[in-house]
């Protein structure tokens, strides 16, 4: 089998970008070939720069087009968003190049761009195959007008409303049997904080969290009396931190002008003050499509409505926003450190100046992604609101404000119990109830994480199933694909493990739960790195020690993390690893084969050892019947029958006996 840790070949979700020059053949006929070559070389340079700056990887140049992928070699939590950003950057870059092209060859340069998200088999040579995504994205861009960016419905689902789109309907693409949904990208969504919250107020009802919302409301009541409060809501991805903050806004009935939302971005973790600058631009009304002078005037008008509106403040904030202010703060502040300090003071004063007599809320989302300068600003705000009617709420995946001098309430969100998960799944499907067995699969695989419940339930509505062919144990159970909206963040957690990712893949074949002994046997070529890898997996929170008596037994903390690791393996790799597991159980751990024949049978089935698998399914059915577990016995007999049907006739005796 391919060495997994060398990343030779694996299955990955990627977003593919294809950019093609319009009427390139006509250009070559009408223009001087040498001049055209220079324009085309510049097109390639601009394309490569835009794609790489957005986090993508250029795969190849196809004639006069370029193909790129996002999500490989490193996963990200927002590969589709990055791809759309790259497409928009590329359109702007080509617009500038077109002006030079018109001057040089008397012809404008125009392009069409398409984006599609799908599953790829990727090897050393790059993109081996993306099901039909490569063909889809090439046909997709043909739908658009010149200088347009069109995307598929699969990509649109991952954008979280961050871009303005125009539906183009269901389209038939040449060579594709099914129609796909197509959208035209108009640009980034220009919604302000109020529009963002309005969009989320149609979210699903919040399940449980009674104690947590009570703590937030208590902090709010104190803040209203002029005793400012800071609350940090912490928890793992998808646990409902933002949903809890939105529930607070709904409960308090705060008007939008008394809410200041600061949203950090994974793509800008090293961009100084990015969340602060973006928030101020939205609040002030800065428009990218208007001149700097007009935006400077807006800044002055905005500052005039606050208590922080003197001339120095105008110059300091204007410089930070990159606006001309007809004067430089450095003229009155000679030292760079002093300039930095005064700018920070001005920002803190501006962020807190909207609170006068009325109590207000400052909400900082995804604090774990903030840059050091923003962290400093937020900590200073927390330190200065003690006597102000301000509630500062911070959402983060971990406790991140560590200043011992700050009084901070911390709310750590726990996973939902099974009943709450059922209620949440019911809210997703609404008037389209799912079978109870399907709901139970959603509950089991979500592990109490609200986002997982929502996405699994939504996937079940679309496909009619969550866990096709599920059996009594989770060796190879799971969907053919993890819901695409969850895939990126889960794969990213595996990618961050380095070499330990390969051990997670080996373990995923054994099942949700796996013994140290069995893993060591299956991953024997990694014996020198096994222990450090297991420690890294435990430290990352992806696995936990389930038992540590006579034998160590570990378990994936999330069923979906196990699924992502498992389905990143090629089918032939899975078959070979299942065969290893089955062989180890049969010859080294016969007690498991005797105690749990269905477990061995599943590995044999997945390995393609059909005859032996059928025998073990029959043994499992007999054992279940002896224990009066009749439903399980029937299910195992049916599975045995499915395996027997795969056998050549020569392997069956006259009475149906299996000859091995």
Detailed description of the structure:
With 660 residues, the protein is α/β, with parallel strands linked by helices. It folds into four domains: 4-188, Nucleotide cyclase, GGDEF domain (Alpha-Beta Plaits, 2-Layer Sandwich), CATH 3.30.70.1230; 209-412, P-loop containing nucleotide triphosphate hydrolases (Rossmann fold, 3-Layer(aba) Sandwich), CATH 3.40.50; 418-463, no CATH class; 484-651, Arc Repressor Mutant, subunit A, CATH 1.10.10. Helices cover 49% and strands 16% of the residues. It is built from 26 helices and 16 strands. The strands form three sheets. Strands 1, 2, 3, 4, 5, 6, 7 and 8 form an eight-stranded mixed beta sheet that branches. Helix 13 links the parallel strand 11 (360-365) and strand 12 (390-396). The radius of gyration is 29 Å and the shape is globular. The protein starts with 9 loop residues before the first strand and ends in a 14-residue tail after the last helix. Residues 1-7, 197-202 and 466-480 have low confidence and may be disordered.
